[in-house]
Amino acid sequence: MQRAPQALIASSGALRVAYVLMRLTLLEALRGRVPWLAALILLAAAGCAWFAQTLSLAEAEATRALVFGSLARLGLVALLAAQVSTTLARALADRELEFILAGPAPRWSLVLGKAAGFSALALLLALCATLVAWPLSAGAQALAVLLWGGGLAAELVAVAALGLLVSLSFNQPATALLAAGAFYVFARSASAAVAIAGFSAQASGSPVDAFVHAIAQVLSFLVPPLDRLANADWLAGGAPVPQAAWFALLALGYALLYGAAAAVDLSRKAF
User: Fold this and answer.
1) What are the φ and ψ backbone dihedral angles of 19, each rounded to 5 degrees?
2) Which has more confidence, 143 or 116?
3) What distance in Å separates the CA atoms of residue 265 and residue 24, rounded to the nearest whole number?
């Protein structure tokens, strides 16, 4: 971060600080390796999709769309989570956060600015993925492709907010990435975990299995239903419009909760 933006941040109000941090966060990502890595991920996903199409004996177009949707989704999530953790780790190592927090602006403005910058990056990544998915999903309706892109955008925003929370909590990029990865895997499999635990508890009648089922239900409320968002089969056919819109809004609600938790955690830290 340059001295001019630092001086501007140190002497500005909360919303001005948030705006400057959002702009700097987005520019840092766009001027770094994120565009090249995103292009590489999308090209690799498209290449694998075309290769899978050549191997498919039936429904080749559907196979192509499914492979691309799955690989692009996973790759962009990993890229965004890595960008969030490394950006905050660099800011902590260079004492940029200490300089900003020493100013008159409240600490929540830092979280707001960083979250807005990472969310803007998430929207750009989702837009690029949607544009690439469009020609690869010839059998799907335009609305289904747009819903897939909107679901991916909501998922990436939630991942960015979660990455911000764990990065501020652990202060170590490797630990933050592991924590974010564990949360993401559980969010993708929470419904299945609850269903399996419920079936086991009902079949055995054991109090231990019932307790495990209750714990799984409680934990499932801590993560957004990412298994209902941006499903790759939407690109191969159609998407349920009401459900897709509802789960996307729910994911954005979880992103707000993660951002609020990050602001509370930052307000209690001593630098």
Assistant:
1) -65, -45
2) 116
3) 22
